[in-house]
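Practice set, problem 2.
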Amino acid sequence: MVHANRTIGAELGGAGVESAGAGLRGQLARHALLPLRLFLGATFLYAGIDKLTDPAFLSPGGAGSLGETLRQVHDAAALPQLVELAQQSPVSFGYAIAAGELAVGLGTLAGLLGRLAAFGGALISLMLWLTVSWATTPYYYGNDLAYLMAWIPLVLAGTPRFSLDAAFANRRKRHGAQLFG
């Protein structure tokens, strides 16, 4: 094991495995989730804004509306009960999805309640996979399952770098349990 530590340590700029925070590899490892976080946060923020600014999406029926999409996917959905729930008020449901995507996108980008935001993103992706993209074959052509899997590392790790969560944690460390003051 000593040889392995020396070899790895040399690649990390002289630090052993125990202190893998030094060197380029350590720096990259600490920031590994940042590109995923930026992509998912920006994508969900954009999706929420796109839904709110698309008059066709928020209309109760017609081409491009959520109501029409729900009618089309009802029979092929894994959970048609979710589709039926949304069909009771497609406009309200459209606003709820858009608001959820905005909250998830902003929370993920800002790193505010990062795990909760990622959990919300995973939940939205799961809901869309079980309804809208369930019938996509082969399964890897659908994007909702891939988004669901992409959210899981952020659910597990949170937003430890360049985030409000990290800033608040550092402040609590410096000033004890008090968050403000």
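Problem 2, part (b): a different protein.
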Amino acid sequence: MSIYTITLKNCAFYARHGVLKEESVLGQRFFVDAELDVPAGAALTEDDLDATMHYGHAFAVIEQVVTSTRRSLIEALAHDVALALCARFPQIVRAAITVRKPSVPIPGILDHVEVRIEHRP
């Protein structure tokens, strides 16, 4: 089976995830990447939008998950994003989700913390 990958890179959302109380009060930006593998078919050979997944709809699914229920761990957030995308788009054969949290409340200088999960329905 041939596949192709649709990638949504650096989707930015404001949310209140984290372990510390301040994170739930103040909130912060989170960035999400989604690599979504789908089987090749009519989308490639016939240029048919109905034969693929609409990445605008995928963005909306990611946004809904990230901005809804508060989670302590970005690991859980990444997992929930993968599950929601696979539920909405049953043609996905692999979802690799990365969540980045740039404003981590730890001592020291760093760019961000990130978690990447892969889900195969």
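Answer key, part (b): The first strand starts at residue 3 and ends at 15. The mean pLDDT is 89.
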